[in-house]
Design brief:
The chain is of the alpha/beta class and about 375 residues long. Helices cover about 40% and strands about 20% of the residues. It has 15 helices and 16 strands. A hairpin with a 2-residue loop joins strand 15 and strand 16. Helix 13 (about 315-325) crosses helix 14 (about 330-355). The chain starts with a strand and ends in a 5-residue tail after the last helix. Bound molecules: ligand PK3. The ligand CNc1nc2cc3c(=O)[nH]c(N)nc3c(CCO)c2[nH]1 binds next to helix 5.
């Protein structure tokens, strides 16, 4: 019995969107869905109980970061990530591919793996497909990601082709190194940048390896949104409709809706909690920078149309005061609200797909939010 399976429930008549359920050893997940990011085994400033209250179905954590701190051996001795962080719902870990390329100032990519420098201690490290799998087997997430190279944007076509071919060989090595097939699912990551024929080559290579799910990597790396949407338009149809599709690193409200319309089922991004720590909030009427002086005497909620615990109990003036005073509780309130906002948005997206009206929902939301019309 495969550890991770996908049940396609409905395809939207208005778009490429679909409703589904991903079944994992730690529970089921309704899609399309957003994954809060818990890089160091915590979704920054929030407790597992608060994440359950806002109905976070699954969280993401990071192989690279947990390998460096506290070390996968300590997490394994704790009984795995679920026990270590007291989260009993599904967990997905990214393989480290992105962090090595985004965090380390020195890196040397070879066939056997990538040599780089620990971004904390400066010591030289080496990450191979086999090492990435060994770490993820020790951490014990329900879904693991293959080790890939996330090339910079833009990248020369010749570089991208060689990178895609190495990422495909690494994916095969990850599959061969996969130990706990009954309790952990392994997803492949499609690369290829904005080159349609390379996305096709990457998809063909990985589909032939029959992963239970596929991520679309190499996006949300500085490309314009219309480039991302174009890449999605010709990439998602290449992927099997009976398996989940995960767009990595995407989390603004407009990109989540546009990704779902193009058939994406899973998203993750640090954006909601990262901007929260800068005192910026996502609302149904656009972004609100609550630390601005304009809100010093504004006793209304962050978002009058939000039903979250924060919007029902705290005012902009109070939250602004906490943020300006560098009070941790202020960051907790903005983080809670931003995650609730995106999780609630995905619930509305699933409802709109059920009613075959996702494009209408996009129009209404974009109008209300103030996104410039396409
Ligand atoms: C914020 N943008 C972003 N683009 C990504 C692209 C990739 C990618 O191509 N591969 C892997 N393994 N992870 C990725 C991640 C980290 C997860 O959010 C990304 N994050």
């Amino acid at each position: 019995m495969a550890a991770v399976t996908y049940e396609l429930k409905k395809t939207c008549k208005q778009s490429g969107a679909r409703l589904g359920t991903i079944h994992t050893p730690h529970g089921s997940i309704d899609t399309p869905m957003f994954m809060p990011v818990g890089t160091l085994a915590t979704v920054k400033t929030l407790s597992p109980e608060e994440l359950e209250d806002m109905n976070a179905q699954i969280i993401l954590s990071n192989t690279y970061h947990l390998w460096l701190r506290p070390g996968e051996d300590i997490v394994q001795e704790a009984g795995g990530l679920h026990s270590f962080m007291n989260w009993d719902r599904p967990i997905l870990t990214d393989s480290g591919g992105f962090q090595v390329f985004s965090l380390s100032d020195f890196r040397n990519i070879k066939e056997e793996g990538v040599h780089f420098r620990n971004h904390i201690s400066g010591e030289k490290l080496f990450l191979s497909p086999e090492k990435a799998m060994q770490i993820q087997n020790a951490l014990g997430p329900d879904i693991m990601m293959a080790l890939d190279e996330c090339p910079p944007y833009p990248a020369e076509e010749s570089y991208m082709k060689a990178s895609v071919e190495r990422t495909s060989r690494w994916a095969e090595r990850c599959l061969e190194a996969h130990q706990n097939k009954e309790t952990q699912g392994l997803f492949g990551i499609i690369q290829g940048g904005e080159y349609e024929h390379l996305r096709k080559q990457s998809a063909d290579d990985l589909i032939s390896l029959d992963f239970p799910g596929y991520a679309i990597g190499g996006l949300s790396v500085g490309e314009p949104k219309d480039v991302m949407n174009r890449v999605l338009e010709f990439t998602t149809p290449l992927l099997p409709s009976h398996k989940p599709r995960y767009l990595m690193g995407v989390g603004s409200a407009d990109s989540l809706i546009d990704g779902a319309i193009r058939g994406v089922d899973m998203f993750d991004c640090v954006l909601p909690t990262r901007i929260a720590r800068n005192g910026a909030c996502m609302t149904n009427h656009g972004r609100l920078v609550v630390r601005n002086a304009a809100y010093a005497r504004d006793f209304s909620p962050i978002d009058r149309d939000c039903n979250c615990h924060v919007c029902r109990n705290y005012s902009r003036a109070y939250i602004r005061h906490l943020i300006k005073s560098n009070e941790t509780f202020g960051f907790r309130l903005t983080s809670y609200h931003n995650l609730y906002f995106l999780l609630d948005l995905m619930k509305k997206v699933r409802e709109a797909i059920m009613e075959d009206r996702l494009l209408d929902f996009r129009e209404e939301f974009f109008e209300q939010y103030g996104f410039n019309r396409p």
